[in-house]
Amino acid sequence: MREATDERGNTLSDAERLTPVGRWLRATSVDELPQLWNVLRGDLSLVGPRPLLVRYLPRYSPEQRRRHEVMPGITGWAQIHGRNAISWEEKFALDVWYVEHWSLALDARILIETVGRVLKRDGVSSDGHATMPEFEGTPAGT
């Protein structure tokens, strides 16, 4: 990504700062390979809810916080069911479903399906975004 700002000095969106090489890295998921180091160190699992920005923590509902009951992973149930092309609410619901249904067989299925999704380049980004819009929190009653 480039360091680019608007006329007021505000950082431009990820989509506006992404270079052609960066777009290719995102589309092919090659940018995820360095995460394998974190798996080897034990800081990350191959499968689990994707780690999100720390600033999102106070925005989680109690139900959404359940995603932290398991170790975060490089790929997960939400990644094979839409990745960044689904809403935040759908993503959190899928993460919680994974927490409630975790098994080695489920992890194996997720790993196998991930290969297909990466090769098809499914759900790499949300409409109009390099990845996803910022998570602002779930509206009350949703």
In short:
By secondary structure, this protein is mainly alpha-helical. The chain contains seven helices and two strands.
The strands making up the biggest β-sheet line up spatially as 1-2
Question: Major sheet, described briefly?
Answer: 2 strands, parallel
Report, as a whole number of angstroms, the end-to-end distance. 34 Å
What is the typical, i.e. mean, pLDDT?
83
**Total beta-strand segments:** 2
**Structural class category:** mainly alpha
User: Rounded to an integer, what's the Rg over CA atoms?
Assistant: 16 Å
Strand content: under 5%
Shape: globular
Descriptive report:
By secondary structure, the protein is mostly helical. It has helices at 14-17, 20-28, 35-41, 62-65, 77-80, 88-101, 104-120; strands at residues 45-47, 73-75. Strand 1 (45-47), helix 4 and strand 2 (73-75) form a beta-alpha-beta unit. It starts with 13 loop residues before the first helix and ends in a 22-residue tail after the last helix. The model has no long low-confidence stretch (mean pLDDT 83).
